[in-house]
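Office hours follow-up: a student asked to see two folded examples consecutively, so here they are.
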Amino acid sequence: MKMTVDFEECLKDSPRFRAALEEVEGDVAELELKLDKLVKLCIAMIDTGKAFCVANKQFMNGIRDLAQYSSNDAVVETSLTKFSDSLQEMINFHTILFDQTQRSIKAQLQNFVKEDLRKFKDAKKQFEKVSEEKENALVKNAQVQRNKQHEVEEAANILTATRKCFRHIALDYVLQINVLQSKRRSEILKSMLSFMYAHLAFFHQGYDLFSELGPYMKDLGAQLDRLVVDAAKEKREMEQKHSTIQQKDFSSDDSKLEYNVDAANGIVMEGYLFKRASNAFKTWNRRWFSIQNNQLVYQKKFKDSPTVVVEDLRLCTVKHCEDIERRFCFEVVSPTKSCMLQADSEKLRQAWIKAVQTSIATAYREKGDESEKLDKKSSPSTGSLDSGNESKEKLLKGESALQRVQCIPGNTSCCDCGLADPRWASINLGITLCIECSGIHRSLGVHFSKVRSLTLDTWEPELLKLMCELGNDVINRVYEAKLEKMGVKKPQPGQRQEKEAYIRAKYVERKFVDKHSALVSPSEQDKRSSSKSCEDQRLSHARASIHTPVKSNDSGIQQCSEDGRESLPSTVSANSLYEPEGERQESSVFLDSKHLNPGLQLYRASYEKNLPKMAEALAHSADVNWANSDENQATPLIQAVLGGSLVTCEFLLQNGANVNQRDVQGRGPLHHATVLGHTGQVCLFLKRGANQHATDEEGKDPLSIAVEAANADIVTLLRLARMNEEMRESEGLYGQPGDETYQDIFRDFSQMASNNPEKLNRFQQDSQKF
C-alpha cells in the first residue's frame, strides 16, 4: 500500500501530520516484518534442502500473505496471487532454483531492508530527537519572564535555531518516507519477477504451466518499467519540491499566518496555543486550537474529540492581556467563563485576535435573524472600559443605567434603524443601539465605535453622564445632516445587509455629514484667536498658583480681578453641562466656531464644554490630539481641563485622546488638573494611565505641584497611585489594577466628582483661611 506524507502538513507540524507519521511508521514496521519473514523463509528453503518442499510451501504461503497485505494495491495483489498459484504446481521442481533464489530474493530484498529501511530508521531517530528539542525550546520560550531580557533573547534564539533544525530534519524525514513508499513497490515486484523468470529458465518441466503465465508476466514487466520510470520521475519532483521549500525562511511560524472565513472544511484558523488551566495551579498546556462552525475548540491529539471553549462566538469578546508575566497573551471572554491563551509570537497573537473578531462578525452576519434572542445572554463587548479590572461594586448597572440613558431625546429607539427599546450603546458616540446594530458597530473596530450593554455592563458615573449629554438626536443631526438631500432612507429592523452598508457609510465613510459646514479659508486659519492674551495671562496665573493658594472649586477657575490680572471663570462647574440650556453661562473667550477647521473647532468646543460641537468636529475628521501652535501646543484635552468639565475629558479620552501629550511647557493634562485643583480630573487621568512621573520645564511633577499647593485630596490620590504602582512592580504584577483598597478610594473620588463635587471643596475652603 503506497502511503505518502504531505510536505505542507510537515511545516505546520499539525496533529494530522503526526497522525500520518504514526500511520506510515506502523506501515513501514509491518512491511519490514513481512519482508524479513519472506527473506528468512527463502534462506530456510535454501539451507534445508531435505525439507525444501515444506519450506517451499511455507514460502508460497508467505507470498499469499504478502498478497493479502497488499490488498489495497491491485497490481501487487493480483501478481502475487497468480505467482503463488503457479508455484504451487511446481513445488517438485525446485532443486535447481536455489542458486537463483540466492541472487534474487535473498540479495535484493535483504539489501532493501538493510539499506533503505535503515535510512528510514535513522531519519526517524533524528526526527524524534529534534522534535523533542523543539518542544522543550517552545516550553522554555513560553515560560521565560518578560522582565528578564537576556533570558528572553536566549530562549528566542534557541527556539529559532531549533525550529530551523526541526524543519530541515522533518522535511528530510518526509522525503525519506515518500521515496521509500515509492521504491517499495518496484523492489518487491522486481525481485519477485526475477524469481519467477528463474522458474521459467530452470524448470523446463513447468513450461506448459508457465506458457500460460508468460503473457501476463510480460505485461507485468512492461508495467514495472513504467512504474520504475514513474517512481524516478516522482522522486525528482519530490526532491525539487523539497529543495524549493527548504529555501524558504522558517525562522518562525509567522510565515504560515493565514485565516479564511470561507474555508471549505469550515476551519477559519488553526494552530498551537498555550492554554492556562482553570485549576488552582494555573498551569499552561500546549493545545491545537481551531475556529470552526462559529466555535473556538481545541484538542490534545488528532483523534481526540474537540473540546469547545466558546459555543457561540457571538457571545464572546477577545482582548490583549498585558497584566501577566507571560508574553503574547490574549483572553477570550464569554458570559460564563474566560480562557487565557498564549501565542508563540506577537504576529501570531494579532492574527488569532483578528481571526476571532472576524469570526464574531461573520457569526452575526450568518445568524442575524436570531440575534435578538441573544439580548439577555450576550457578554460585555470589546468596547468596554478598563474598569473591567476594577471592583464592580457600587457602580451603576442594569435598569438604572438603561432608564437614565433612555430619558434623553431620541434614545428610546435605535439610532441607526429605529427599533424600539434599545439595550446597547456606543460610549464614544453617545448613542443607543439595538443588538443587531451593536454587532455591526463592534465589527467596525473600537476606533470607530465602542459598544457596551445598558443592562449587563457596569457604568462609571462620568461615562453615564457622558451618555446623558449626547444622545441619538444630537448625533444624528451631525452624522445624518445630508441624509434627506441625498435621498437615502434609513434601513429598517431586520435588514442586515442594508444596515451594514448604511452604518459603514454613516460612521466610517461619513457620507451623510455636511462637510462644508466646517471649512475655513487659509487666511482665517492664520488668524490668531481673540483670546490669545487672556489665555497667556490665565496660564501665567495658573503657574503662579503653584506657590499661592487660589480660590477655585473642583471644576472651575477664577474670574479676572479688578486690577487687571485674568483667570478663568469660577462659575464654570463640572455639573454645568446638566443645567437647563438657558441657565448655562456662555463663554466669551472664543469666537463663533461654526466656520473653524475641525481641529480648532474641537479645541475651542472642549474649553466651552460643548459636547455636540465636539462630536461635530470629530465627525469632520478633527484630530483628537490636535495641538494649537498659537497657544503653547495645547491640546483639546488640556482645554477640557482648563474648562473644568470632567465629562468633556471623558469624551475626549473615549475617542482616543492621548492622556500624556504635553504642551511646550512640558505639562500634560495631569499637570494642568493638579495646578488648577481639579481633583475629579486628576482621579480620571490616573485611572486612564496618565504618567505622574513626567516633569515640566521647571522639573516639577504633579505630586510636587500638589504638595506645594497643599491640596490634600490630590496629594492623597497621587501618592496612593504611586504606592500602588511601586507595589505592583515589586510583586511583578505588571498591568494589574491593584488591591481593593486602592480601587475603592478611586471609585469613591469618581463618585464624588460626578455626583457630589461640593465634597471636593475642602482644599479651596482651607485656602480661604489664609
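And the second, which I mentioned at the end of office hours:
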Amino acid sequence: MTSPAERYARWKTEAEQERAAVELTAFTARYPFTLDDFQLAAGRALEGGSSVLVAAPTGAGKTVVGEFAVHLALARGHKVFYTAPIKALSNQKFGELVDWLGADRVGLLTGDTSIRPEAEVVVMTTEVLRNMLYADSDLLVGLGFVVMDEVHYLADRMRGPVWEEVIIHLHGSVRLVSLSATVSNAEEFGAWLQEVRGSTEIIVSETRPVPLWQHVVVGDELLDLFVDADGEAVVSQGPGARGDRRVNPEIERVTSFSLPVDERTGGARGRGYRGRKGTGGRHRPRGSGQHRPPHLRKGRGPYEGGGDSGRGERSGGGGPGAGPHRHGDRSGGALRPPRRPDVVELLDDAALLPAIMFIFSRAGCDGAVQQCARARLRLTDDRERREIRAVLDEQLGGIGIEDEEVLSLDTFRRAALDGFAAHHAGMLPLLKSVVEALFARGLIKVVFATETLALGINMPARSVVLEKLVKFNGVDHADLTPGEFTQLTGRAGRRGIDTEGHAVVLAGPRFDAPAVASLASKRTYPLRSAFRPTPNMAVNLLDRFDLSRARETLETSFAQFQADRSVVGLARRARELEDTADDYRAAVTCDRGDLLEYARLQEALTDREKALSRARAERDRDRTRSVLGDLRRGEVIALPGGKRRGYAVVLEVDRAVLGGPQVDLLDTEGRRRSLRPGDVPSPPAVIDTLRLPRQDSLGSGRVRKDTAAALRQRLAGQDDDARAEVRRRAGRSPSTAATDEQLLALREQLAAHPCAACPDLESHLRWVGRWRKSRGELEGVQRRIRGRTSSLARQFDRLTDLLSELGYLAPAGPEGEELHPTASGLRLRRLFSDRDLLIAQCLEHGAWTGLDPAGLAAVVSAAVHETRRDDRAPELIPDPAVDAALAASMRLAAALQSAEARHGITPTTAPDPAIAAIVHRWARGAHLAAALEGNDLPPGDFVRHCRQVIDLLDQLTADEELGPVARQSIRAVRRGLVAQEIDR
C-alpha cells in the first residue's frame, strides 16, 4: 500500500506528463508532416524534465528538437538560450526564430552584435554564454533551457573548451539540449552529460531521412559506387539502404585502363560532353531524376538517349563495348581527374544540380570559378538572370566604387549571373551570404566551397562533389576521416526539398575504389575533448571557488572523463607492446657479433652527423646576421630560399630591432617584405645596386610599381633561379664532416665491427628497428598512463604557480592555503583570448600606453592574429610609438615563454604583426582598396580579423588607462564595409 506522499508524487508526475503531451501535440501541429521517432522521443524526454543529447545525421532534423525546447520554455514561462559555434549560424537561427515568434520575443548576442538581450529567446555564440556565466550576468535569471547546436564542436582544438565550460557551469536547474552529428561514442558523451548535468536522455538516430546514392566520376562517366549482385545501383544510406552491396566492378575495370593519348579517337579529349553548356538538367524539378543519370540506365550505352545525339559520335562510339578510349583522359598511364566545367556539365545532364563541389583550398575555389567562366559555362536562363541581377543590385549597392576592384565584384557578378560561385572564408561575408541566398533559391546551381561550408549553413544541395579525398590539416596533407567524409556528403539531399541525395567522388591518380567505399560505409566518428585549463579560466574559477572546488571542476570535464576511462585500454595496450617488444628482442641476433652494439654505433654516427649539420647551420645563421647588418640601401640581392626567395632591392636596414637585423625589401612584384636572419637558410648575395626614390615616397603604390619595374630591368640577363646565383656568389659554410675526428672514429669502428660483414645485416637491422619502435611506443604508452590520472588538475596547479609568480594570484585564507585573484588577476579575468596572459602582461607593464586609436588597433591586431601562410612578412608601420609597442610586446612574449617553459606549460605564441599595417591604415581612414594595397590579404579575412580586433578592443574599454582610446579605436575600425558586415 502506497503512502499519501507517494500517491501525490505519482499524480504530479502523471499530470506533468499529460500537460507536456499537450505541448508536444501543439508544437507538432506546426509541421505538415509527422515528426520522426527520434524527434518525438527527444520531445517527450524534455517534457519529462530531462536534458537530452540528440545525435543524428546532417539534415535529419535535429533542430526541430531545439525548436521544441524553445516552445516548451515559452509555454512554461522560462527563458531559453540558443547557442551556435559560429556567428553565421547564430545570425541564421536568429532570422528563423524571428520569422516564427516575432521580432519582439527574440534577441541576438554575438559579441559584436547586441539585439534585445533581455528577450525571452536569445540566440548567441557559445563564447558569449561562457562569459555571462563567469560574470554571473543578470540575464541568466529565469533561464530554463539552453540549446547547444553542433555540440560536437567541442572537439575543436581552439574553441572547443568553451563548450565544456558552459556545460559544467550552467546551473543545475537548466535543461540542456545538445544537438550533435552522429558520433560513434555518443553513449560515452551522454554518460558524461548525465554525470555533470543529471538526468539526460541519449537519443541516437543513424538513419538519413533522404536516401543517399554514392557515385564516382571516371573521365566523362558517372558510375555508381555500390551495386548489388545483379549490377543494379544500391542506396548507401537512408531509406532503401541495403547490406548486400558491393563496390561496382565496372569502376575497377574502367580505372585499370592505361592507354597513350594517341590511341584515343580524336587525340587528347580534355572534355567529356563537348559543346554542351549545361542544358540537360536545368529545367528538371529537384528530385525528379532517377538515381542513375539517363545515359547510364540499364539497357543503355553511356551515350545513348537523353538528348544530344552527337555525343556518342564525338566520343568514338556509343555502347558499353565501345572500348577503353571512352573512359576519360589518361596520359602516360595516369588517370586524370576531369576538368571542373566538365564535371558541372555532367551533373547538369544527369539532373543532379544544384551541387556543392568541395575543393580544399581557397585558391582552388576561385580557380574553379575562373575555369567555368573561361569555358563559357552558363547554367541559368534569362528569367533566372533577371532575378539574380535584382538580388545583386539590392545587396551589393552599398559597396563603394573604389572597393569594387579589390573585391573582384565584376568577376563575382558575371559568375553568379551564369549560375556558379565560390564560397570560402577569404570572401567578404556579404558575398558569401548572397551566394547562400541565391543557392537556396535555386538560382545559383553550383558552389565551389571549402569544407567550412559543411558546418550547418543552410544551403540545400541535390548533390555534393568531393574533388579529392586529401586535405591540408594545418600541418600536412592527410586523408579525409570517415567523420569528415560523412559531414561533407551529408549535405546532399535535404528533407522536404529533395527526394534523394547524391555524393560524387572524382577519380584521379592512385584512385582506390575500396578505400572510397570504406569511407562511405563508416558514417560515424569519435568525439574527443579538447578541454584544457587556461589563465583566464584559472582566475575565473578562483574568483568563484576555493582551490579544491576549482580542481574538482576541472576533474568533471569530458577530457578527464575520457582520460580516466582510457587508462584501462592503455594498460591493455602496454601489455601487448611488452609482448611484441620481447618477441622482436629475441629476433635481434647475428652470429657475427653483438648486433645491438653495431646499431648503437650506427645511431651515434647519425647523431654526430646531425650535430655537425646543426653547427653548420648555426654558422650560416651567424654569417647571415653579419651580411644583413652590412647591407646598404639600394643594393640588389639574390635570396637563397626559405621563407624568402627571388630577387629584391634593399630599402632600409634596422640593426637595432629585436631578433634582427631587419631588412626592409622591395621585390620584383612591387611588394614590400621584411627579412630577418631566421627567414633564409644562408646569407643572400649582393649582385648589383639600384638608385631608389626617396623613402617617404615609397608609401605610394605607383612608386613601388615603378621601382619594381626598374629592378626587373636591372636584373635582365641574371639567372632566373636566384638560389643558383647565391650558390655562385655566396654559398653555404663549408662542411666539417670530412675532417671531424669523432665522426671519422665512429666510421672506423662501424666498418671494423664484426657485424658489418654479415650478408644479412640489412635484415637484422630491420628487426632492431622494429624492436626500438615497439620499445618507444611502450614508453610512450607508459608515460600516458602515468599522466592520465588527475592530469588536468596537475596542469591547473602548474598554471596557478605561474600566475602566482607573475602576480595574478596571491595567497588568501587564514594560513594562506588558498589563492585569490589580485587586481591584475581581475583584469585578466575579463580577457578572453588565446593570448590572454600575454595581453594581460602588456597591460600590466604599460606596453600599449601612449598609442593613438589607429596605433592601438594595429597592436591589438598583432595580439589576435595568427598568420595562415609562412611567406607573409610584417609590413613596417611608419609610427615610432607603434614600433615601440610591438617591440615591447615581443620582449614580454619572450619573457613569458621562458616562464611558461620553467613551469611545464605550453608557451604562448608571440604577437603576429603580419597585417597590423593594414589595420593601421584602415583605422586611419583609408578605404578598403587603399588599406589592402600591396598585400594579398583576402577581403573576407580582413573583415573577420577586424571583428576579432574590435572584440579585444571592447574588452579593453573597461581598462582605466586604455579605455578611452579603446573606444575611439573601435569607432575607427568599425566603419565602412566592416561596420556593414557587423550590423547585418
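Two things to take away from it. The longest helix spans residues 595-630. The radius of gyration is 32 Å.
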